[in-house]
Amino acid sequence: MDNLAESARNLSQKFPKNSYATIWDYCHKLSYAKRIMVSPARLDGLPSRGIIHGGYSPNCAAMLAITVYLLIAALPVGFISGIMARILIPISLWFWVDLNEEIEDQPSGALKLAFNSWRWAITVYCLLGAIAQLPLLQCAISKNLTALPLCRAWSEPPLLFKEYFHPNTTPQFLGFLGIASLIFYVVCLSYFVLVKLGKQGRSAIQQ
Description:
By secondary structure, the chain is mainly α. It is built from nine helices and no strands. The protein has helices spanning 2-14, 17-38, 62-72, 77-95, 97-105, 110-132, 137-140, 149-165, 171-200. The longest helix has 30 residues, at 171-200.
């Protein structure tokens, strides 16, 4: 106990009283950064707990994971979902009006600069990726993916992923998981666009 009390006294001497406010402000900024970096990456529909209004928030980046499993089974729809994921992610980053306003209201500093740089970098990267993948749409209508070199090359990374993480699982089963996840994702996203968007609007923070 004596050692603990001594450590506490030494720690209090290192931080003056006015530093507690600084520490609190810093923690508040970290909380704000976490909130605005988690919320924009989601669109309502999938069950999730948090600050999202209504408690439903599917991560748009999940479509990329679904795409991997679709391509493992050589399902042509995977080429479409991959492009859609790169379109949905930038939309979700700029979709929530209240979060955009909160970001603008923050004082200029390293945290705000880092977040805005991150958001613009992700946006540019995803949009350029979507444009670069437009030639892959021919793979989506091809009956034989192995016949086209471009389609075959694009399918190799998912197969490598399977070798590392699912060596004993058949591609057909992984493809089934991808299809089931895609259907569930589309249903939830449709529910958000057709039902919840009209009620909630573009507000991410729970009222």
